[in-house]
């Protein structure tokens, strides 16, 4: 898989343990239960020790994981993970890199996945004019179709945008009244783009990009401008390992257990209390993705015949 992003909580933690993979200095524990809204756990690098990765996330008090589905096969795998692990949910979409593969069969497969209760968002989908693995025209076509699927299913959108802020805002503006909610995940853009998104009543997902001393500087200033109730947090693992971790990690694979470090960093630059920020982002994620609270499933989307 290509690098993507350059690019209440149900689990008990009493028997959670770390295994030997994470050095002692990287075994964080969040003071508040966290929701990692972007975990690419279907990536090959997790195939060997997925069970341990989920256990370590619980030990770190990262109690809920939203597994990103970036194409049909990975979205189906994400659903399988959601069935296997409590506190794990899936998204289903086609990443802009793979937009050239969009066709009616794929659209039908996606629509079917969006009807599943394990799928809590449409995406990852969007526009990436940074690398153009699919042409801009193909990306816009696939994204437009997925905006339509989000409108039909009533489920929120999980959006990827890179170097396409202006076109993204134009397209979202047209659809904004038809879609329930949307989060721009792994936000790394500038102030104008941020406020454009906030004006469209969107949510913002922040990753460990902010921990990068080479390119995260502008974000350190900007994060203060995101209203607390619009902010969610994510690792985007296995990508975007925070660069300022207090110990070296063999293999340099990011994982959900490292989310507390990212939250601590965001809290620092926002002058928030870490626990308060953690609690707020989890409440927002539970509301945004309509996650079950205390075991009670919430209404997740509406049947397509209603509008
Ligand atoms: Zn992404």
UniProtKB/TrEMBL annotation:
Presence of keyword Phosphoprotein: no
GO molecular function: hydrolase activity
Gene3D superfamilies to which the protein is assigned, alphabetical: Metal-dependent hydrolases
A Pfam family recorded for this sequence: TatD_DNase
UniProt KW keywords: Hydrolase
Record's keyword annotation contains Protein biosynthesis: no
Spans through the membrane: none
Chain coiled-coil ranges: none
InterPro entries referenced in this protein's UniProt entry, alphabetically: DNase_TatD-rel_CS, Metal_Hydrolase, TatD-like
Top-level lineage group: Bacteria
Family the entry assigns: Belongs to the metallo-dependent hydrolases superfamily. TatD-type hydrolase family.
Name by which UniProt lists this protein: Hydrolase TatD
Record organism: Billgrantia ethanolica
Biological classification of the source: Bacteria, Pseudomonadati, Pseudomonadota, Gammaproteobacteria, Oceanospirillales
């Amino acid at each position: 898989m290509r690098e993507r992003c350059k690019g209440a909580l149900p689990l008990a933690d009493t028997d959670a343990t770390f295994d030997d993979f994470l050095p002692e200095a990287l075994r964080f524990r969040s003071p508040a239960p966290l929701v990692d809204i972007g975990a690419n756990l279907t990536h090959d690098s997790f195939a060997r020790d997925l069970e341990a990765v989920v256990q370590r996330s619980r030990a770190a008090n990262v109690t809920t994981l939203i597994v990103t589905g970036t194409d049909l096969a990975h979205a189906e795998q994400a659903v399988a993970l959601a069935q296997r692990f409590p506190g794990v949910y899936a998204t289903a979409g086609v990443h802009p890199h793979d937009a050239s593969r969009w066709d009616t069969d794929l659209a039908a497969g996606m629509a079917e996945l969006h009807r599943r209760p394990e799928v809590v968002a449409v995406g990852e989908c969007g526009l990436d004019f940074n690398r153009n693995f699919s042409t801009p025209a193909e990306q816009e076509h696939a994204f437009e179709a997925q905006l339509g699927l989000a409108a039909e299913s009533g489920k929120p959108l999980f959006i990827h945008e890179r170097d396409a802020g202006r076109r993204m805002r134009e397209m979202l503006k047209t659809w904004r009244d038809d879609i329930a909610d949307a989060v721009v995940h792994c936000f790394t853009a500038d102030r104008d783009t941020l406020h454009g998104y906030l004006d469209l009543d969107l949510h913002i997902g922040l990753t460990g990009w902010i921990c990068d001393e080479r390119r995260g500087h502008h974000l350190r200033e900007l994060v203060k401008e995101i209203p607390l109730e619009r902010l969610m947090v994510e690792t985007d693992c296995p990508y975007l390992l925070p660069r300022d971790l207090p110990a070296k990690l063999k293999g340099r694979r990011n994982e959900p257990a490292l989310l507390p470090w990212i939250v601590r960093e965001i809290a620092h630059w926002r002058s928030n209390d870490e626990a308060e920020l953690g609690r707020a982002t989890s409440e927002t994620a539970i509301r945004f993705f309509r996650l079950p609270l205390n075991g009670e499933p919430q209404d997740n989307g509406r049947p397509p015949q209603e509008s």
